[in-house]
Design goal:
The chain is an alpha+beta fold. The chain is built from 5 helices and 7 strands. A 7-stranded mixed β-sheet has the order 1-2-3-4-5-7-6, with helices on both faces. It binds coenzyme A. Coenzyme A binds next to helix 1, strand 4, helix 4 and helix 5. Coenzyme A (COA) binds near residues 26, 97, 126 and 128.
């Protein structure tokens, strides 16, 4: 049975491990291991994850199976335009296609009932995630290039009105 809970600061190292696993699985055909290591070390640092877990404008949810973290999603609410920006959504490959990603999106939305729009960025070649978001009603509204430690990541900006 899968449970969904607010992430705790002491869980940051296990969340980082999950992110490394899902990143390696999703991006090993697209990026070199050096590039994956560089991006994950910056984007998934313990200090950044801790800051986000503690931020009252961030909804940070973990999915657990037998007390082990097997999925996560965090999203930041921008009150000015009632926008919820999904920063990460990751499910352990062994637990994908069981509705956990879909449930995580619903759970992060629950903290900010006044939201009117969802926004996210997805790597251009990550077609599995792109189709997942499209199926959930997100539409491509633009493109963006991330440059992280010398790694260029072409991405699509997607939005969904609630
Ligand atoms: C994208 C991602 C988060 C989706 O998570 P997931 O848990 O597999 O998503 P879901 O199970 O909710 O939905 C996936 C599929 O399962 C189906 N599904 C949904 N609920 C289901 C259920 N209860 N039982 C069986 N299948 C179900 C969905 O219809 C969907 O089908 P589709 O393949 O036809 O689209 C996951 O693939 C992932 O972690 N990828 C790697 C990281 C990544 O790319 N993240 C996004 C970066 S922006």
């Amino acid at each position: 049975m899968i449970s969904y809970q607010k992430a705790k600061v002491e869980e940051a190292p296990d969340i980082k491990k999950l992110l490394y696993k899902t990143w390696t699985s999703a991006y090993s055909d697209i990026y070199s291991q050096e590039a994956i290591d560089a991006v994950t070390s910056e984007w998934h640092s313990i200090s950044l994850l801790t800051k986000q877990i503690l931020n009252p404008n961030v909804s940070f949810i973990v999915a657990k199976s037998d007390e082990k973290i097997i999925g996560m999603c965090n999203a930041e609410f921008k009150p000015k335009n009632k926008l919820l920006y999904i920063q990460r959504l990751h499910v352990d490959p062994k637990f994908q296609n069981r509705g956990i990603g879909s449930t995580l999106i619903k759970k992060v939305m629950g903290k900010f009932p006044s939201l009117i729009k969802l926004k996210l960025e997805v790597e251009k070649q990550n077609l599995k995630a792109f189709y997942f978001y499209q199926k959930h009603g997100f539409k491509k509204v633009g493109t963006k290039n991330f440059l992280v430690k010398g790694v260029r990541m072409p991405s699509l900006i997607m939005e969904k009105l609630i």
